[in-house]
Write a structure and sequence with these properties.
- By secondary structure, this protein is of the alpha+beta class.
- It has a single domain (about 5-90), classed as 2-Layer Sandwich (Alpha-Beta Plaits).
- The chain is built from 3 helices and 4 strands, in the order E-H-E-E-E-H-H.
- It has helices at about 15-20, 65-75, 90-95, and strands at about 5, 25-30, 35, 55.
- The radius of gyration is 12 Å and the shape is globular.
């Protein structure tokens, strides 16, 4: 199993999770992070670090968010690795409670 970044990360892109990952499995897109399913070792240390609760074990992905399992895998090859935390977008706090953000995903 692997962990999955879900919709809550879109337009927030907090990177607290990146600093604790022991295998550098996060990839960075323009306005979201994803987890490389081939690199993730299922350690779960990233889950409590996410301030918007966007990371789940694959088997715990909430109903309606299952498409993010494939999306993480699909975007991984196209996006570069991120191994250090960086400042989140200036308007991240404005987006953290917004629902239905898939339309804002930048590939």
């Amino acid at each position: 199993m692997t962990h999955v970044v879900t919709e809550s990360c879109i337009k927030c892109k907090y990177t607290d999770c990146v600093d604790v990952c022991p295998v550098d499995c996060f990839r960075e897109g323009p306005n979201m992070l994803v987890i490389d399913p081939d690199e993730c070792i299922d350690c779960a240390v990233c889950i409590p670090e996410c301030p918007v609760e966007a990371i789940f074990a694959e088997e715990d992905v909430p109903a309606g968010q299952e498409k993010f399992i494939a999306l993480n895998a699909d975007l991984t090859p196209a996006w570069p690795s991120i191994t250090r935390a960086k400042a989140h977008p200036a308007d991240a706090d404005d987006w953290k409670d917004v629902k239905d953000k898939l339309q804002y995903l930048e590939r």
